[in-house]
Amino acid sequence: MDLFSTADPENTNLLPKDGTVLYYGPVVSIAQANYYLNTFLETIEWKNDEAVIFGKRIITKRKVAWYGDTTYSYTYSKTTKEALPWTPELLQLKKIIEEKTGETYNSCLLNLYHSGDEGMGWHSDGEKELKKNGAIASVSLGAERKFAFKHKETKEVVSHVLAHGSVLVMKDETQTYWLHRLPPSTRVQKPRVNLTFRTINLK
Fold first, then answer.
1. Each residue of 45-98: pLDDT tens digit?
2. In the list 11, 12, 66, 185, which could disulfide-bond 116, CB 3.0-4.6 Å?
């Protein structure tokens, strides 16, 4: 099933079952989205991501950064990151997203995709540090990219195009029953910054 329209009502669940995904569309103006994109490209402490696959450490072209309320540790793909302190612009955007989604977040993982050649494989955000069934708000800045979900049992696929300045929220049992990915696209030549605001357990 492909859902490419960006005019979906905010209360419409994109998933047919076993989770909740809400697409809010653009939540800031184009001017604001351009400002945040350019600011994050220049000021975020980007580093190449690392992952351990079949025992081998891989350095990705994609770059990442991890920010939060305090120096949280976050481990995924067998690598651990320590959160950096919020920048003023991240806090501004965090407030906008919290007001729009009605959720609160204490950290943010950022990904920089330099072009459509870079993507993300099928995975779910089920790390033990994350609040179970908590909301994850995905903010897209820059190039429009297709985002896909695949049910772990039925293999049903749901896809959606994420617009510049838009927000998509994954919550409830989504991470338990669904995988998601950002497929590569050779037609996309512009960069995309993705911010995933999330909640880390304090205990």
1. 999 877 777 777 788 888 999 999 998 877 766 677 889 999 999 999 999 999
2. 185
d(CA 22, CA 101) in angstroms, rounded, equals 9
Please give, one letter per residue, the 3-state secondary structure of the chain: CEECCCCCCCCCECCCCCCEEEEEEECCCHHHHHHHHHHHHHHCCCEEEEEEECCEEEEEEEEEEEEECCCCEEEECCEEEECEECCHHHHHHHHHHHHHHCCCCCEEEEEEECCCCCCEEEECCCCCCECCCCCEEEEEEECCEEEEEEECCCCCEEEEEECCCEEEEEECCHHHHEEEEECCCCCCCCCEEEEEEECECCC
